Amino acid sequence: MKIVVSANGADLDAPTSPVFGRCPTYVFVDTDSMAAEGIDNPAINAAGGAGIQAAQFVIEHGTQAVVTGNMGPNAFNVFQSAGVPIYLFGGGTVRDAAEAFRSGRLQSIVDANVQAHAGMGMGRGMGRGMGRGMGMGMGRRAGGAFSQAPPADFVPSQPIASQEEEVASLKDIASGLREQLAEVMARLDRLEKEG
Alpha-carbon distance 7 to 67, whole Å? Predict the structure, then answer.
């Protein structure tokens, strides 16, 4: 069976990524032979819709199941429409994720486990929030503790994250926050000049 694992590297020994839509790499694994192919995520820097674009990319590559740390509703809906099940994996290597899937230790999810737009991009909708969405989704603190409560049905198959994964995740969050702050400051400057 061909599965895909969201990862921070391109081979079986790469650490898994706790995010789907903006993970650096997708590792496609044949669970029968354990042959793996890592492909860079073409949607990682998308201004919006990264989860949808990433899900479509993964489906186009013939994946039959997804193994990841988190899944937003937009990507979840794409996979659900295509009949591709999603399995949550709490942390480890791509090999660990594939072996956990292969041995039946992972459970599929029936709904997204993070809210829409939980990635790093600024919301640009014109609803009552005037496009100022700043949601951060389900972050984790040092030591693997959730900064927000995980869903009631979240059961990691292994420890949440190694210190290296945590550092990488926090660096990604810090980078996104810097980008958001720059966008907010530029918007404030424009509004102050206009007003």
Answer: 10
